[in-house]
Amino acid sequence: MQKIIQLSSHVANLIAAGEVVERPASVVKELLENAVDAGATQVTVEIRDGGMTFLRVTDNGCGMSREDAKTAFLRHATSKLRSADDLAAITTMGFRGEALAAIASVSRIELLTKTAGAISGTSLSLEAGKITDESDAGCPDGTTIIVRDLFFNTPARMKFMKADSVEGGKVAATVQMQALAHPEVSFRFFRDGKQILSTPGSGLLEDAVYCVYGRDFGRMVKVDSQWDGYTLSGFVSKATDARPSRNMQTFFVNSRPVRSRILIGALEEAYRNQIMAGKFPACVLHLNLPANAVDVNVHPAKTEVKFLNEKAVFDCMHYGVLGALNTASDRPQMQFVRPSVAPQVPASQPLPAQPAKPTAKQNTFFRTMSAQEYQAFSAAIKDAPQPNKFAAAATVAAVERSANLGLKEDIILPSMPVQVSTPAQESAPSANVPTIAQDEPQQQAFSMPEVPSWRYVGELYQSYILVEQGDDAFLIDKHAAHERILFNKLKQNQESISAQALVTPIPCPLRPDAAATLLESRELLDSLGFEIDSFGDSTVLIRQIPMDLSAQEAAETLEALAADLMSGSQKSKYDVRDEVLHTVACKAAIKAGWHSDEKELIKLAEQVMADPLVKHCPHGRPICISLSKKQLEKQFKRS
Ligand code: ADP
Ligand code: MG
């Protein structure tokens, strides 16, 4: 073996660069974190060619003295950490003192910086980490860093870069992420001379979310809760607005973007039985914990995080989101295509829903809880039955296995709306932003609103129950409603699955391993209304089945159950039970197209109208759609 030597600082920096500086987006992430740490309130990012040839970040933060500016590019140069003790209580974004050295080692840099009160600023030029020029410079307070020709001296790394459009997209996602992480800072982003994003820096998360997501945001539900010294705030999608992937789940822990199985699991647990399989809720959520309750001392470029008390974090997220969802009105409104709008939209395509402005009446009834109410609510549910621990663990485990979880640092947000002006620029700050905070009065006392009584009007197409209440009409899907109500009862064991013994037991041929699995799970089957016996190697004898299933359906359900149980790791018994309950509820429920007795329909409507929590059938389809008098008047051109 060769003699041991210490690596030169340049080589060490290149190695660090390999870890910290993966692509233009990672450079932008580091520079933005530095700007935020420097106390900037305005930050501008500009890139050309995806950030490969030119990338500039300008901030109005504290700036650096000449001395500090030169030191900043040395490895392990940081102003944020003095001793090992400081590591436990990190509140800034950066602390390793690696980023600038690493970026500088693989690019050409120009730095302009000035501290407030200094007569002149400093200009530095660096190439491959070496200072090539330094001088005084007239410049505003704050710091501007230009990074040119990224990876010019590491062709191997250069080869890994994707097309400029892809790299530019990743930079855009990074800026969006920082904008959502720091609503108190105004971010602007220009790509090849075109402004792509601008946030007002109002300090209100809703303003930042609105600028990033545009009108889709209007449909999200506000979350604002406290849990044992942890706070959770932000926005989640309604169950009916679930997405095909987890790309739209954004979590921040103490303002750092993170991906965490615990957080994802707890979020999705709150939507259990409300979202179709393969769909996922969207969110922008900030979890704030005491600095010592979380370990951020993980790899700088990664977004992992370790919690001291995972259970508390899970509960905080789960109950916070659940509380918000349960109090939010989400009876979807009937959508009309508006002929007067935008000729580029084909008339057949439904327009995206308007941010629903709740009426004053709805406001008091279906609104997010105030902090006090939430505390009362959370105190109450603390004594209530806890969520099935098995189920919660299973959710987290399922998240872990799910291939859909892109645990990547570069979380790409889907199509970024090109937002040229911010609400703040258009008019008075947040005047036309649907700020939920404004819409919702900060009520102190929880007064029960007067809900007008409703009236059964009739049935449409043998499928929908029509109900009138005040200035609103509701269409209730009778099958979906019945299915949900049955499912809830079965699930809460208010109603046991009634079973029917078969006069002649029927043999159900299966694969031998499936038969064995079913026989091992007799206890579970029993609770679901099945009774089976062994009948040779690859057949089970069905003696009893749930009341509402036909023999054929029962055999099919058993076969599906066996498959679920065998994939063991895939689903917990809890999930399997839920699925059987879905099937039973679905089969037992009255069907669309069937004739139903008026009394039966009134009874169903009664249950739906009385319980705003009956919102979706167990497969996630809506149960009730509202149609307001106003909407109708508009259609008839009366307004
Ligand atoms: P870290 O952020 O981990 O401390 P960096 O290499 O990113 O390490 O930055 C080194 C130091 O340079 C920082 O600690 C900070 O003092 C200073 N610095 C970097 N960027 C800025 C900026 N935009 N404004 C003011 N100071 C900065
Ligand atoms: Mg830094």
Question: Can you give a write-up of this model?
Answer:
This protein is α+β, with helices and mostly antiparallel strands. The protein contains 21 helices and 22 strands. The strands form 5 sheets. The protein has an 8-stranded mixed sheet, with helices on one face. A hairpin with a 5-residue loop joins β1 and β2. α1 (9-20) crosses α4, α8 (261-269) packs across α12 and α18 runs antiparallel to α19. Bound molecules: adenosine-5'-diphosphate and magnesium ion.
Write out key terms for the chains shown.
639 residues; alpha+beta; eight-stranded mixed beta sheet; five-stranded mixed beta sheet; 21 helices; 22 strands; 34% helix; binds adenosine-5'-diphosphate; binds magnesium ion
Identify low-pLDDT runs. 338-387, 403-448
Summed over residues and divided by their number, the pLDDT gives a mean of: 78
Shape verdict: elongated
**Strand residue percentage:** 15-25%
Compounds present? adenosine-5'-diphosphate, magnesium ion
- Major β-sheet strand ordering: 5-4-3-6-2-1-7-8
- Largest sheet composition: 8 strands, mixed
Count of helices? 21
Radius of gyration: 29 Å
Fraction in helix = 25-40%
Q: Cα distance, first to last residue? A: 88 Å
What is the strand tally? 22
Which class best fits the helix and strand makeup?
Answer: alpha+beta
Describe the secondary structure blueprint for this structure.
Blueprint lengths: L8 H12 L3 H14 L4 E7 L5 E6 L6 H7 L26 H7 L2 E7 L6 E7 L2 E8 L4 E7 L6 H5 L4 H18 L4 E6 L2 E5 L6 H9 L7 E7 L2 E7 L12 E5 L2 E3 L2 H9 L13 E6 L5 E2 L10 E2 L2 H18 L32 H6 L5 H13 L5 H13 L21 H4 L9 H4 L14 E7 L3 E6 L2 E6 H14 L7 E11 L2 H9 L1 H6 L3 E4 L4 E8 L4 H16 L6 H16 L9 H13 L13 E5 H7 L4
Parallel strand pairs: 1-7, 11-13
Antiparallel strand pairs: 1-2, 2-6, 3-4, 3-6, 4-5, 7-8, 9-10, 10-13, 11-12, 14-15, 16-17, 17-18, 18-22, 19-21, 20-21
